[in-house]
Amino acid sequence: MKAAFEDPRFPTLSAREFEEVEIEISVLSPLRKITDVGEIEVGKHGLVLEAGFARGLLLPQVATEYGWDREQFLNHTARKAGLYPDAWRQKGTSIFIFTSDVFSEATISLTAQGG
């Protein structure tokens, strides 16, 4: 509820919009640090980039939803961390991958109905 009405990063939802919201939960696997970006499988892995105190995370489904390739995914994760897009190429930047299990109200409803 706080994210819908009290998060200063986004406009507050109206009551009508809130009724149409579908909640989705992503359960993340443990992070695994990588040294070769070739290990990243777009659509399977989520990313965390860290450089100093900056940290950005994007879920696996984000790259798929936007049709990004591996480099675009890395660039956007760096930007999410408040870094330059190519920061993932810089020494001192750590890259972690993870997978996630995604649950939403729709999938839970289908499971409960036997679908």
Detailed description of the structure:
This protein is an alpha+beta fold and 115 residues long. It has one domain: 2-Layer Sandwich (Dna Ligase, domain 1), CATH 3.30.1490. Strands 2-5-3-4 form a 4-stranded antiparallel beta sheet. The chain has a two-stranded antiparallel ribbon with strand order 1-6. Strand 3 and strand 4 form a beta hairpin. The longest helix has 11 residues. 17% of the residues are buried. The mean pLDDT is 90.
CATH fold-level assignment: Dna Ligase, domain 1
Q: How would you spell out the order of helices and strands?
A: HHEEEEHHEEH
Number of domains: 1
End-to-end distance, in Å?
Answer: 29 Å
Rounded mean pLDDT score: 90
Tally of DSSP β-strands: 6
Rg over C-alpha atoms, rounded to the nearest angstrom: 16 Å
The CATH C-level name is Alpha Beta
Poorly predicted regions: none
Query: Structural class, from secondary structure content?
Result: alpha+beta
The helix content is 25-40%
Supply the CATH architecture. Answer: 2-Layer Sandwich
Query: What percentage of amino acids are in beta strands?
Result: 25-35%
Strand order of the largest sheet: 2-5-3-4
| CATH homologous superfamily identity | Hypothetical protein ph0010, domain 2
Q: In DSSP terms, counting alpha (H) and pi (I) runs of 4 or more, how many helices?
A: 5
User: What's the main sheet like?
Assistant: 4 strands, antiparallel
Instruction: State the shape.
Output: globular
